[in-house]
Amino acid sequence: MAQLDISQKLTILADAAKYDASCASSGAKKRDSRDGTGIGSITGGGGICHAYAPDGRCISLLKILLTNSCIFDCHYCINRRSSNVRRARFTAPEVVDLTLNFYRRNYIEGLFLSSGIIASANYTMEQIVEVARSLREDHDFRGYIHLKTIPNADAELIAQAGRYADRVSINVELPTRQGLERLAPEKSETQIEGAMADMATVIEDGADARKRYKSAPRYAPAGQSTQMIIGADAANDRDIVRRASGLYTRFKLKRVYYSAFSPIPDASAVLPLQRPPMQREHRLYQSDWLIRCYDFSLAEVTSVADTATGMLPLDIDPKLAWALKFRGQFPVDVNRAPREMLLRIPGLGPTAVNRLLKARRYRSLRLADVARATTSVKKLRPFIICEDWRPLALTDSADLKALITPKPKQMELFAV
Protein backbone atom coordinates (compact mmCIF):
# COMPACT_ATOMS: atom_id res chain seq x y z
CA MET A 1 0.00 0.00 0.00
CA ALA A 2 1.43 3.38 -1.02
CA GLN A 3 2.22 5.85 1.76
CA LEU A 4 -0.62 8.34 2.14
CA ASP A 5 -0.74 11.46 4.26
CA ILE A 6 -3.54 12.10 6.75
CA SER A 7 -5.48 14.29 4.35
CA GLN A 8 -5.48 11.61 1.64
CA LYS A 9 -6.52 8.92 4.12
CA LEU A 10 -9.34 11.11 5.38
CA THR A 11 -10.62 11.69 1.85
CA ILE A 12 -10.72 7.95 1.12
CA LEU A 13 -12.05 6.71 4.46
CA ALA A 14 -14.67 9.41 4.98
CA ASP A 15 -16.05 8.69 1.51
CA ALA A 16 -16.07 4.95 2.25
CA ALA A 17 -18.11 5.54 5.42
CA LYS A 18 -20.97 7.32 3.64
CA TYR A 19 -22.80 4.03 2.96
CA ASP A 20 -23.52 3.52 6.67
CA ALA A 21 -26.72 5.33 7.69
CA SER A 22 -26.81 4.27 11.33
CA CYS A 23 -25.00 7.23 12.93
CA ALA A 24 -27.68 8.79 15.10
CA SER A 25 -27.09 9.64 18.74
CA SER A 26 -30.52 10.07 20.27
CA GLY A 27 -30.55 8.89 23.86
CA ALA A 28 -26.89 9.54 24.60
CA LYS A 29 -25.85 10.58 28.10
CA LYS A 30 -25.53 14.34 28.56
CA ARG A 31 -21.89 15.32 29.19
CA ASP A 32 -19.99 18.56 28.88
CA SER A 33 -16.70 20.13 29.95
CA ARG A 34 -18.04 23.40 31.35
CA ASP A 35 -16.54 22.58 34.77
CA GLY A 36 -13.13 23.40 33.33
CA THR A 37 -11.88 19.82 33.07
CA GLY A 38 -11.84 17.37 30.18
CA ILE A 39 -12.47 18.09 26.55
CA GLY A 40 -15.51 17.67 24.33
CA SER A 41 -19.24 18.00 24.74
CA ILE A 42 -22.42 16.37 23.61
CA THR A 43 -24.76 19.08 24.86
CA GLY A 44 -23.24 22.34 23.76
CA GLY A 45 -22.06 24.06 20.60
CA GLY A 46 -23.38 23.83 17.09
CA GLY A 47 -22.85 21.63 14.07
CA ILE A 48 -24.31 20.19 10.88
CA CYS A 49 -24.81 16.44 10.60
CA HIS A 50 -27.41 13.70 10.45
CA ALA A 51 -27.13 12.83 14.12
CA TYR A 52 -29.20 14.03 17.04
CA ALA A 53 -28.48 14.74 20.69
CA PRO A 54 -30.90 13.91 23.54
CA ASP A 55 -32.47 17.37 23.31
CA GLY A 56 -33.17 16.96 19.58
CA ARG A 57 -30.32 19.12 18.26
CA CYS A 58 -28.56 18.10 15.08
CA ILE A 59 -24.90 17.54 15.94
CA SER A 60 -21.81 17.03 13.82
CA LEU A 61 -19.79 13.82 13.78
CA LEU A 62 -16.49 12.77 12.30
CA LYS A 63 -17.70 9.73 10.36
CA ILE A 64 -14.89 7.53 9.05
CA LEU A 65 -13.66 4.00 8.63
CA LEU A 66 -10.55 2.82 10.40
CA THR A 67 -9.74 1.10 7.10
CA ASN A 68 -11.56 0.22 3.90
CA SER A 69 -9.47 -2.94 3.44
CA CYS A 70 -11.45 -6.08 4.22
CA ILE A 71 -10.89 -9.83 4.22
CA PHE A 72 -14.58 -10.42 3.41
CA ASP A 73 -16.04 -10.39 -0.10
CA CYS A 74 -19.67 -9.29 0.42
CA HIS A 75 -21.18 -8.66 -3.02
CA TYR A 76 -23.00 -5.43 -2.05
CA CYS A 77 -20.01 -3.75 -0.37
CA ILE A 78 -17.78 -1.34 -2.25
CA ASN A 79 -14.94 -2.22 0.13
CA ARG A 80 -15.15 -5.97 -0.44
CA ARG A 81 -11.94 -7.93 -0.95
CA SER A 82 -12.35 -8.20 -4.73
CA SER A 83 -13.30 -4.54 -5.26
CA ASN A 84 -10.93 -2.36 -7.25
CA VAL A 85 -10.93 0.65 -4.91
CA ARG A 86 -8.10 2.69 -3.48
CA ARG A 87 -7.26 1.41 0.00
CA ALA A 88 -6.22 3.32 3.08
CA ARG A 89 -5.85 2.71 6.80
CA PHE A 90 -5.69 4.88 9.89
CA THR A 91 -3.78 3.90 12.99
CA ALA A 92 -5.62 4.26 16.30
CA PRO A 93 -3.50 7.31 17.36
CA GLU A 94 -4.25 9.01 14.03
CA VAL A 95 -8.01 8.69 14.58
CA VAL A 96 -7.63 10.01 18.12
CA ASP A 97 -5.61 13.03 16.92
CA LEU A 98 -8.09 13.73 14.12
CA THR A 99 -11.03 13.63 16.50
CA LEU A 100 -9.40 15.97 19.02
CA ASN A 101 -8.12 18.40 16.39
CA PHE A 102 -11.48 18.53 14.61
CA TYR A 103 -13.24 19.12 17.90
CA ARG A 104 -10.91 21.95 18.88
CA ARG A 105 -11.71 23.63 15.57
CA ASN A 106 -15.45 23.23 16.27
CA TYR A 107 -15.87 21.02 13.19
CA ILE A 108 -17.40 18.12 15.13
CA GLU A 109 -19.00 17.14 18.40
CA GLY A 110 -18.31 13.43 18.27
CA LEU A 111 -17.01 10.39 16.40
CA PHE A 112 -18.66 7.62 14.37
CA LEU A 113 -16.10 4.88 13.74
CA SER A 114 -16.52 1.75 11.66
CA SER A 115 -14.05 -0.44 9.79
CA GLY A 116 -13.44 -3.15 7.27
CA ILE A 117 -12.12 -6.42 8.71
CA ILE A 118 -8.32 -6.63 8.66
CA ALA A 119 -6.26 -9.64 9.82
CA SER A 120 -9.11 -10.93 12.01
CA ALA A 121 -12.28 -9.79 13.72
CA ASN A 122 -10.55 -9.61 17.10
CA TYR A 123 -7.61 -7.59 15.78
CA THR A 124 -9.95 -5.08 14.11
CA MET A 125 -12.13 -4.81 17.20
CA GLU A 126 -9.05 -4.21 19.36
CA GLN A 127 -8.08 -1.24 17.19
CA ILE A 128 -11.58 0.24 17.31
CA VAL A 129 -11.77 -0.15 21.10
CA GLU A 130 -8.31 1.38 21.50
CA VAL A 131 -9.48 4.56 19.75
CA ALA A 132 -12.41 4.94 22.13
CA ARG A 133 -10.33 3.99 25.19
CA SER A 134 -7.64 6.54 24.38
CA LEU A 135 -10.19 9.31 23.80
CA ARG A 136 -11.98 8.61 27.07
CA GLU A 137 -9.09 7.69 29.39
CA ASP A 138 -6.02 9.44 27.96
CA HIS A 139 -7.73 12.65 26.81
CA ASP A 140 -10.91 12.76 28.94
CA PHE A 141 -12.98 13.25 25.79
CA ARG A 142 -16.64 13.77 26.72
CA GLY A 143 -18.20 14.09 23.29
CA TYR A 144 -20.33 11.48 21.58
CA ILE A 145 -18.79 8.19 20.37
CA HIS A 146 -20.58 5.62 18.22
CA LEU A 147 -18.68 2.41 17.46
CA LYS A 148 -19.59 -0.13 14.81
CA THR A 149 -18.69 -3.49 16.31
CA ILE A 150 -17.56 -6.70 14.60
CA PRO A 151 -20.09 -9.55 15.08
CA ASN A 152 -17.64 -12.45 15.40
CA ALA A 153 -15.20 -10.61 17.67
CA ASP A 154 -14.66 -11.83 21.23
CA ALA A 155 -17.56 -10.97 23.57
CA GLU A 156 -15.18 -9.22 25.99
CA LEU A 157 -14.02 -6.83 23.26
CA ILE A 158 -17.61 -5.98 22.34
CA ALA A 159 -18.34 -5.36 26.03
CA GLN A 160 -15.35 -2.98 26.20
CA ALA A 161 -16.72 -1.11 23.21
CA GLY A 162 -19.98 -0.63 25.11
CA ARG A 163 -18.07 0.73 28.08
CA TYR A 164 -16.42 3.54 26.11
CA ALA A 165 -19.07 4.30 23.48
CA ASP A 166 -22.38 6.10 23.81
CA ARG A 167 -23.90 3.82 21.21
CA VAL A 168 -22.81 0.62 19.51
CA SER A 169 -24.23 -0.95 16.39
CA ILE A 170 -23.94 -4.30 14.67
CA ASN A 171 -25.28 -4.44 11.12
CA VAL A 172 -27.59 -7.33 10.25
CA GLU A 173 -26.70 -6.41 6.65
CA LEU A 174 -29.70 -7.98 4.86
CA PRO A 175 -33.29 -8.65 5.93
CA THR A 176 -33.30 -12.42 5.38
CA ARG A 177 -31.01 -15.34 6.08
CA GLN A 178 -31.29 -16.40 2.44
CA GLY A 179 -30.15 -12.97 1.26
CA LEU A 180 -27.18 -13.01 3.62
CA GLU A 181 -26.11 -16.49 2.52
CA ARG A 182 -26.28 -15.44 -1.13
CA LEU A 183 -24.67 -12.00 -0.97
CA ALA A 184 -22.42 -12.30 2.10
CA PRO A 185 -21.63 -16.02 2.44
CA GLU A 186 -18.71 -15.37 4.82
CA LYS A 187 -21.04 -13.76 7.38
CA SER A 188 -23.39 -15.64 9.67
CA GLU A 189 -26.81 -14.54 10.87
CA THR A 190 -26.25 -16.66 13.98
CA GLN A 191 -23.03 -14.80 14.81
CA ILE A 192 -24.59 -11.39 14.16
CA GLU A 193 -27.62 -12.04 16.33
CA GLY A 194 -25.44 -13.69 18.99
CA ALA A 195 -23.33 -10.53 19.23
CA MET A 196 -26.47 -8.39 19.44
CA ALA A 197 -27.83 -10.59 22.22
CA ASP A 198 -24.51 -10.36 24.12
CA MET A 199 -24.52 -6.57 23.89
CA ALA A 200 -28.17 -6.39 24.95
CA THR A 201 -27.27 -8.45 28.03
CA VAL A 202 -24.27 -6.24 28.83
CA ILE A 203 -26.37 -3.07 28.54
CA GLU A 204 -29.16 -4.52 30.70
CA ASP A 205 -26.75 -5.83 33.35
CA GLY A 206 -24.95 -2.49 33.40
CA ALA A 207 -28.22 -0.62 33.91
CA ASP A 208 -29.15 -2.93 36.79
CA ALA A 209 -25.72 -2.46 38.38
CA ARG A 210 -26.04 1.33 38.12
CA LYS A 211 -29.27 1.17 40.12
CA ARG A 212 -27.37 -0.43 43.01
CA TYR A 213 -23.92 1.12 42.68
CA LYS A 214 -23.31 4.62 41.37
CA SER A 215 -19.70 3.72 40.58
CA ALA A 216 -20.70 0.86 38.25
CA PRO A 217 -19.57 1.45 34.65
CA ARG A 218 -22.15 2.66 32.17
CA TYR A 219 -22.47 0.55 29.00
CA ALA A 220 -23.66 2.16 25.76
CA PRO A 221 -26.18 4.53 27.41
CA ALA A 222 -27.68 5.33 23.99
CA GLY A 223 -28.23 1.62 23.36
CA GLN A 224 -27.51 -0.32 20.19
CA SER A 225 -28.78 0.00 16.66
CA THR A 226 -28.47 -1.83 13.36
CA GLN A 227 -28.78 -1.29 9.64
CA MET A 228 -30.12 -3.41 6.81
CA ILE A 229 -29.70 -2.92 3.08
CA ILE A 230 -32.95 -2.66 1.12
CA GLY A 231 -33.34 -3.78 -2.48
CA ALA A 232 -30.15 -5.83 -2.90
CA ASP A 233 -31.96 -9.13 -2.38
CA ALA A 234 -35.47 -10.46 -2.98
CA ALA A 235 -36.90 -9.54 0.45
CA ASN A 236 -40.18 -7.62 0.24
CA ASP A 237 -41.40 -4.92 2.61
CA ARG A 238 -43.46 -7.37 4.65
CA ASP A 239 -40.32 -9.47 5.29
CA ILE A 240 -38.35 -6.36 6.25
CA VAL A 241 -40.93 -4.99 8.69
CA ARG A 242 -41.26 -8.40 10.35
CA ARG A 243 -37.50 -8.72 10.74
CA ALA A 244 -37.19 -5.23 12.20
CA SER A 245 -40.03 -5.85 14.65
CA GLY A 246 -38.34 -9.05 15.79
CA LEU A 247 -35.03 -7.25 16.33
CA TYR A 248 -36.70 -4.58 18.46
CA THR A 249 -38.43 -7.21 20.58
CA ARG A 250 -35.54 -9.63 21.04
CA PHE A 251 -32.60 -7.26 21.42
CA LYS A 252 -34.24 -4.03 22.66
CA LEU A 253 -32.67 -2.02 19.83
CA LYS A 254 -32.99 1.76 19.80
CA ARG A 255 -33.21 2.01 16.03
CA VAL A 256 -33.22 -0.06 12.87
CA TYR A 257 -31.88 1.94 9.93
CA TYR A 258 -32.77 1.18 6.32
CA SER A 259 -30.34 1.91 3.52
CA ALA A 260 -31.62 1.64 -0.06
CA PHE A 261 -29.17 -0.36 -2.14
CA SER A 262 -27.18 1.83 -4.49
CA PRO A 263 -25.29 0.39 -7.46
CA ILE A 264 -21.58 0.63 -6.72
CA PRO A 265 -18.54 0.91 -9.01
CA ASP A 266 -17.18 -2.42 -10.23
CA ALA A 267 -20.37 -4.11 -8.98
CA SER A 268 -20.83 -7.86 -8.62
CA ALA A 269 -22.86 -9.54 -11.36
CA VAL A 270 -25.34 -10.98 -8.83
CA LEU A 271 -26.57 -7.53 -7.77
CA PRO A 272 -29.56 -5.75 -9.36
CA LEU A 273 -28.69 -3.17 -11.98
CA GLN A 274 -30.95 -0.47 -10.54
CA ARG A 275 -31.49 0.83 -7.05
CA PRO A 276 -34.96 0.61 -5.47
CA PRO A 277 -37.01 3.82 -5.36
CA MET A 278 -36.00 6.08 -2.48
CA GLN A 279 -39.67 6.32 -1.57
CA ARG A 280 -39.52 2.66 -0.55
CA GLU A 281 -36.89 3.43 2.08
CA HIS A 282 -39.06 6.33 3.28
CA ARG A 283 -42.15 4.12 3.63
CA LEU A 284 -40.18 1.59 5.66
CA TYR A 285 -39.07 4.31 8.05
CA GLN A 286 -42.70 5.42 8.39
CA SER A 287 -43.75 1.83 9.14
CA ASP A 288 -40.97 1.63 11.70
CA TRP A 289 -42.31 4.74 13.43
CA LEU A 290 -45.84 3.31 13.48
CA ILE A 291 -44.63 0.31 15.47
CA ARG A 292 -42.28 2.21 17.79
CA CYS A 293 -44.19 5.43 18.43
CA TYR A 294 -47.82 4.95 17.35
CA ASP A 295 -48.59 1.64 19.09
CA PHE A 296 -49.40 -0.13 15.83
CA SER A 297 -49.00 -3.89 15.95
CA LEU A 298 -46.87 -5.75 13.43
CA ALA A 299 -50.03 -7.32 11.95
CA GLU A 300 -51.61 -3.89 11.44
CA VAL A 301 -48.59 -2.53 9.58
CA THR A 302 -48.11 -5.58 7.37
CA SER A 303 -51.83 -5.70 6.57
CA VAL A 304 -51.46 -2.72 4.21
CA ALA A 305 -48.79 -4.45 2.12
CA ASP A 306 -49.90 -5.77 -1.25
CA THR A 307 -51.14 -9.33 -0.89
CA ALA A 308 -49.30 -10.59 -3.99
CA THR A 309 -46.01 -8.69 -3.79
CA GLY A 310 -45.71 -7.94 -0.07
CA MET A 311 -44.75 -4.33 -0.87
CA LEU A 312 -46.03 -1.22 0.90
CA PRO A 313 -47.78 1.39 -1.26
CA LEU A 314 -45.43 4.09 -2.52
CA ASP A 315 -48.02 6.76 -3.32
CA ILE A 316 -49.41 7.12 0.21
CA ASP A 317 -47.96 6.62 3.68
CA PRO A 318 -48.75 3.33 5.50
CA LYS A 319 -50.87 5.02 8.18
CA LEU A 320 -53.18 6.53 5.59
CA ALA A 321 -53.21 3.21 3.73
CA TRP A 322 -54.35 1.47 6.93
CA ALA A 323 -57.13 4.03 7.50
CA LEU A 324 -58.39 3.64 3.92
CA LYS A 325 -58.35 -0.15 4.18
CA PHE A 326 -60.16 -0.25 7.52
CA ARG A 327 -62.73 2.49 7.04
CA GLY A 328 -65.07 0.73 9.43
CA GLN A 329 -62.90 2.05 12.28
CA PHE A 330 -63.74 5.63 11.31
CA PRO A 331 -64.83 8.34 11.87
CA VAL A 332 -63.33 8.65 15.36
CA ASP A 333 -64.82 10.98 17.97
CA VAL A 334 -61.87 13.06 19.18
CA ASN A 335 -63.77 13.91 22.38
CA ARG A 336 -64.27 10.29 23.45
CA ALA A 337 -61.87 7.95 21.65
CA PRO A 338 -58.96 6.38 23.58
CA ARG A 339 -55.39 7.40 22.85
CA GLU A 340 -54.59 4.30 20.77
CA MET A 341 -57.45 5.09 18.38
CA LEU A 342 -56.52 8.77 18.12
CA LEU A 343 -53.02 7.69 17.08
CA ARG A 344 -54.54 5.83 14.12
CA ILE A 345 -56.09 8.98 12.63
CA PRO A 346 -54.07 10.09 9.55
CA GLY A 347 -52.41 13.42 10.23
CA LEU A 348 -52.24 13.11 14.03
CA GLY A 349 -48.94 12.30 15.70
CA PRO A 350 -48.16 11.55 19.37
CA THR A 351 -47.57 15.23 20.23
CA ALA A 352 -50.86 16.34 18.68
CA VAL A 353 -52.73 13.47 20.35
CA ASN A 354 -51.31 14.39 23.75
CA ARG A 355 -52.42 18.00 23.24
CA LEU A 356 -55.95 16.91 22.34
CA LEU A 357 -56.18 14.56 25.32
CA LYS A 358 -55.11 17.36 27.63
CA ALA A 359 -57.45 19.95 26.06
CA ARG A 360 -60.56 17.74 26.06
CA ARG A 361 -60.38 17.43 29.85
CA TYR A 362 -61.56 21.03 30.05
CA ARG A 363 -63.87 21.49 27.05
CA SER A 364 -65.44 19.77 24.07
CA LEU A 365 -63.09 19.92 21.09
CA ARG A 366 -64.16 21.66 17.91
CA LEU A 367 -62.60 21.36 14.45
CA ALA A 368 -60.63 24.57 15.05
CA ASP A 369 -59.08 23.01 18.18
CA VAL A 370 -57.94 19.98 16.18
CA ALA A 371 -56.58 22.26 13.44
CA ARG A 372 -54.40 24.08 15.99
CA ALA A 373 -52.87 20.77 17.10
CA THR A 374 -51.72 19.70 13.63
CA THR A 375 -50.18 21.22 10.51
CA SER A 376 -53.12 20.47 8.19
CA VAL A 377 -56.68 19.54 9.02
CA LYS A 378 -57.63 18.57 5.45
CA LYS A 379 -56.40 14.98 5.78
CA LEU A 380 -58.18 14.56 9.12
CA ARG A 381 -61.69 15.68 8.19
CA PRO A 382 -62.95 12.39 6.70
CA PHE A 383 -61.75 10.46 9.77
CA ILE A 384 -62.91 12.50 12.78
CA ILE A 385 -65.98 13.70 14.61
CA CYS A 386 -65.84 16.95 16.61
CA GLU A 387 -68.35 19.07 18.48
CA ASP A 388 -69.08 21.05 15.32
CA TRP A 389 -68.01 18.59 12.58
CA ARG A 390 -69.27 15.31 11.17
CA PRO A 391 -67.97 13.96 7.83
CA LEU A 392 -71.36 12.46 6.88
CA ALA A 393 -70.79 10.36 3.72
CA LEU A 394 -67.24 11.67 3.17
CA THR A 395 -65.62 8.75 5.00
CA ASP A 396 -67.32 6.25 2.65
CA SER A 397 -66.62 8.23 -0.53
CA ALA A 398 -65.32 6.05 -3.34
CA ASP A 399 -62.74 8.65 -4.32
CA LEU A 400 -61.61 9.46 -0.77
CA LYS A 401 -57.99 8.63 -1.54
CA ALA A 402 -57.93 11.10 -4.42
CA LEU A 403 -59.59 13.78 -2.28
CA ILE A 404 -57.02 13.71 0.52
CA THR A 405 -53.84 12.75 -1.32
CA PRO A 406 -51.75 15.79 -2.28
CA LYS A 407 -51.63 16.36 -6.02
CA PRO A 408 -48.20 16.01 -7.68
CA LYS A 409 -46.67 19.42 -8.20
CA GLN A 410 -43.81 20.39 -10.48
CA MET A 411 -41.27 22.41 -8.50
CA GLU A 412 -39.93 25.61 -10.04
CA LEU A 413 -36.18 25.81 -10.40
CA PHE A 414 -35.99 29.57 -9.88
CA ALA A 415 -39.00 30.08 -7.59
CA VAL A 416 -38.63 32.86 -5.03
UniProtKB/TrEMBL annotation:
- Quote one Gene Ontology molecular function term: metal ion binding
State if Iron-sulfur is listed as a keyword: yes
Task: Quote the InterPro entries the UniProt record gives.
Answer: Aldolase_TIM, DNA_rSAM_put, Elp3/MiaA/NifB-like_rSAM, Endo/Exo/Phosphatase_dom_1, rSAM, rSAM_sf, RuvA_2-like
Keyword S-adenosyl-L-methionine annotated:
yes
SUPFAM superfamilies, A to Z: Radical SAM enzymes, RuvA domain 2-like
- Pfam families in UniProt: Radical_SAM (PF04055)
PANTHER family registered for this protein in UniProt: ENDONUCLEASE/EXONUCLEASE/PHOSPHATASE FAMILY DOMAIN-CONTAINING PROTEIN 1, TYPE II SECRETION SYSTEM PROTEIN K
Its protein name is: Putative DNA modification/repair radical SAM protein
Q: Which organism is it from?
A: Pseudooceanicola sediminis
